[in-house]
Design brief:
Elements (H helix, E strand, L loop, with lengths): L9 E2 L2 E2 L6 H12 L4 H7 L4 H9 L1 H6 L15 H20 L5 H17 L6 H4 L6 H11 L2 E4 L9 H18 L6 E10 L6 E4 L15 E9 L9 E4 L5 H5 L10 E4 L7 H22 L6 E5 L9 H4 L7 E5 L5 H4 L6 H23 L4 H8 L2 H14 L2 H6 L17
Parallel strand pairs: 4-9, 7-8, 9-10
Antiparallel strand pairs: 1-2, 3-5, 4-6, 6-7
Helix pairs in contact: 2-3, 5-6, 6-14, 14-16
């Protein structure tokens, strides 16, 4: 006879007792005071009679308790101020939900810190000493989410097959090439393009337990293309190329902005795509001068290797198209259908950049919407412009760490060991 299956969430087939929240216990007390019998209450709330009696025995303390939603037990060590923070935070989440705004973990934690700071600054505040270390950490957020039952929902508004054999063959060829040519990590660069929906609201938002979905909303899908480039040692990031659908946005004219002074190389076409002409401009006007200066400054041999995929914007005869002035640049193209496996920028670098961009964006949105009467949708639609976006792109790109950039090469170039440069 086969052994009995043990249900998930149980130990030795015994169900884990369900914790009853303080607000549910208050309901039980109120119904008992209105004449409900203990046995009926135990059945209604799926509790043991002894547990129900214990709840009624402690009714005075429970009725006097003023705790945040979802708290199951009364603890002397839980600061009263923290309960106030969570109650006000839940009210704020409800307001955002009704307004149709998106809120994620970062924004909720930022708001919690802001509420906590305001309560500390408003006398009289209680239990100040015990909550000075409140950091709105990931652990606190997880427990807050479990207590209040807020949950994440999706707002409704190319997986090419990879050639593993070609990737493995290229790895061997590449490693032999860099060894034979004597390249070090500081001289090997990689670039890749990525699309960025710089005003798109997130699909997921946290809402209260009572709501299952939110009304649909129109997504703002203003797209641009970025080309990011850095070396294997992670200490040389090249100025990004940004391609937009407008040559001269209105905000440039209003601010008398010179495109040459931007933190990115600005180019435009109707589809916001990188073309071969635009790529060659970036290569000769941004990449080559920056790499030359970097190598000369660090007393490195004037030679570099640029690794990239065979996208249509990358000229296949690039080496022949370059003038003698740029003969220190050599190019290696990745084989077709190998990008997800060995493309260095795809190895978490672009994902990390977009995460940092989103974090900086939401920090800015939180600050503005918290200090004004604007909601998130109004701010993004009417008050967040492409100049703000460029500033956040620069901030996010600068915050991509050496470790992230270096670790991305482990698959393609396992023997790559960046050495610390000595300044002369």
């Amino acid at each position: 006879m086969a052994p009995k299956k043990v249900k998930s969430g149980s130990v030795s087939g015994v169900k884990k007792p369900k914790r009853i929240t303080v607000e549910t216990k208050k309901e039980i007390i109120a119904k008992h005071e209105n004449g409900a019998r203990v046995s009926d209450l135990a059945m209604q709330y799926n509790m043991a009679k002894l547990t129900t009696c214990t709840t009624l025995k402690n009714k005075e303390a429970l009725k006097a308790a003023d705790v945040a939603k979802g708290v199951t037990i009364l603890m002397k060590q839980r600061p009263k101020l923290l309960d106030e923070v969570e109650k006000l935070l839940l009210v704020w989440i409800n307001q955002k939900e009704l307004a149709g705004d998106s809120v994620n973990e970062t924004i909720i934690c930022e708001k919690a810190l802001h509420i906590h700071h305001d309560l500390l600054a408003t006398p009289p505040s209680t239990s100040i000493a015990s909550v000075e270390e409140f950091k709105a950490s990931r652990g606190w957020f997880d427990k807050f989410r479990q207590r209040t039952r807020i949950h994440s929902v999706i707002r409704h508004g190319e997986a090419a097959s990879s050639d593993k054999k070609a990737a493995e063959d290229f790895e061997k060829e590449f490693n032999k090439f860099v060894e034979d040519e004597g390249y070090v990590s500081h001289q090997v660069f990689n670039c890749d393009e990525t699309g960025l929906f710089w005003k798109k609201m997130p699909k997921r938002t946290y809402i209260t337990q009572e709501k299952k979905t939110l009304p649909d909303h129109k997504q703002m899908k203003d797209r641009l293309t970025l080309l990011l480039c850095a070396n294997a040692s992670g200490d040389c990031k090249i100025k990004p190329l940004l391609v937009y659908h407008s040559e001269n946005p209105r905000v440039f004219k209003l601010n008398n902005m010179l495109k040459a002074k931007l933190l990115v190389m600005w180019r435009a076409n109707s589809k916001a795509w990188v073309t071969r002409m635009i790529f060659m401009e970036w290569l000769t006007k941004v990449f080559a001068p920056a790499v030359r200066e970097y190598l000369e400054t660090n007393n490195l041999p004037l030679k570099c290797l640029l690794v990239m995929d065979n996208a249509p914007a990358h000229p296949p005869n690039l080496k022949e198209d370059l003038d003698l002035e740029y003969d220190f640049i050599k190019v290696k193209f990745l084989p077709p259908s190998t990008t997800p496996l060995i493309q260095r920028m795809d190895q978490n670098v672009i994902a990390n950049f977009k995460k940092l961009y989103t974090k900086a964006l939401f920090a800015r949105c939180f600050q503005v919407t918290n200090d004004t009467d604007l909601n998130l949708g109004q701010y993004w639609k009417d008050h967040f412009n492409i100049l703000h976006c460029i500033s956040l792109i620069d901030k996010a790109w600068n915050e991509v760490s050496f470790r992230t950039l270096q670790s991305a090469w482990r698959k393609l170039w396992p023997d790559c060991e960046p050495e610390r440069l000595r300044r002369f």
